[in-house]
């Protein structure tokens, strides 16, 4: 069976037309020639119409659609081909290369400015240890046989008091009279450096000596 796939005369409509003609012929044959009641003949004719039309569609229309392709599937394929063609036609957009920031120009007087700063940084700071040492007043023993309680000075414990006594310092007025050079002399002979200035021994010794009267 050959039939158009478009318009009214497509495969499906032709199958139903053939089924209707055959059904009409069956109705006329049964009701006229065989004298069957018209209602029974009509039911049989309708069954023949529907059955024949559906059988013809199954036999011929599906074969034609398989050969020519479903209209819906063809439409989808055409749209996909059109989209692919448009995508291929689009040219890639060229992106500009990233901008690299150039370093700021260095002022001409930068080197001249850095040189004095570097020279100043290289000058070593004065250290208290560089002070010339000078031996303070040292006693062979406490005056009057009675030494002051040097442990009253903050930072001086029993062990340190014993060390000071062995060095010849027994009284507050001795420590209160120390000069920076004498502090350096004593500090260089102690185990813990810098304690004299850190704990302010001289001021404490002066106050304790005045309080002693």
Brief summary of the model shown:
It is built from nine helices and no strands.
Write up what this structure looks like.
It is a single chain. This protein is an all-alpha fold and 213 residues long. The protein contains nine helices and no strands. The chain has helices at residues 11-33, 38-68, 71-89, 110-122, 158-167, 172-176, 180-187, 195-198, 201-212. Helix 1 (11-33) packs antiparallel against helix 2 (38-68). Mean pLDDT is 77; it is low at 115-128.
Count of DSSP E strands? Answer: 0
Going by helix content, strand content and strand pairing, the class is: mainly alpha
Assess the beta-strand content as a share of residues.
Answer: under 5%
State the end-to-end distance: 143 Å
Shape: rod-shaped
Give the radius of gyration: 62 Å
Helicity, as a percent range: 55-70%
| Helical segment count | 9
Q: Whole-number average pLDDT?
A: 77
Regions with little confidence, pLDDT below 50 for 5+ residues? 115-128
The topology string of helices and strands comes to HHHHHHHHH
Biggest sheet character:
none
């Amino acid at each position: 069976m050959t039939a158009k796939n478009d318009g009214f005369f497509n495969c499906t409509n032709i199958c139903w037309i053939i089924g209707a003609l055959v059904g009409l012929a069956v109705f006329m044959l049964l009701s006229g020639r065989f004298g069957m009641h018209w209602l029974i003949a009509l039911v049989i004719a309708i069954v023949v119409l529907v059955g024949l039309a559906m059988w013809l569609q199954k036999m011929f229309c599906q074969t034609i659609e398989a050969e020519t392709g479903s209209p819906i599937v063809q439409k989808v394929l055409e749209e996909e081909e059109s989209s692919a063609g448009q995508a291929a036609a689009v040219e890639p957009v060229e992106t500009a290369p990233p901008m690299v920031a150039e370093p700021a120009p260095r002022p001409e007087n930068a080197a001249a400015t850095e040189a004095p700063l570097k020279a100043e940084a290289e000058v070593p700071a004065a250290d208290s240890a560089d002070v010339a040492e000078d031996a303070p007043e040292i006693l062979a023993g406490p005056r009057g046989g009675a030494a002051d309680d040097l442990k009253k000075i903050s930072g001086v414990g029993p062990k340190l008091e014993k060390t000071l006594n062995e060095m010849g310092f027994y009284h507050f007025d001795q420590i209160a009279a120390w000069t920076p050079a004498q502090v350096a002399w004593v500090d260089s002979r102690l185990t813990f450096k810098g304690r004299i200035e850190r704990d302010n021994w001289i001021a404490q010794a002066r106050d304790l000596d005045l309080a002693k009267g």
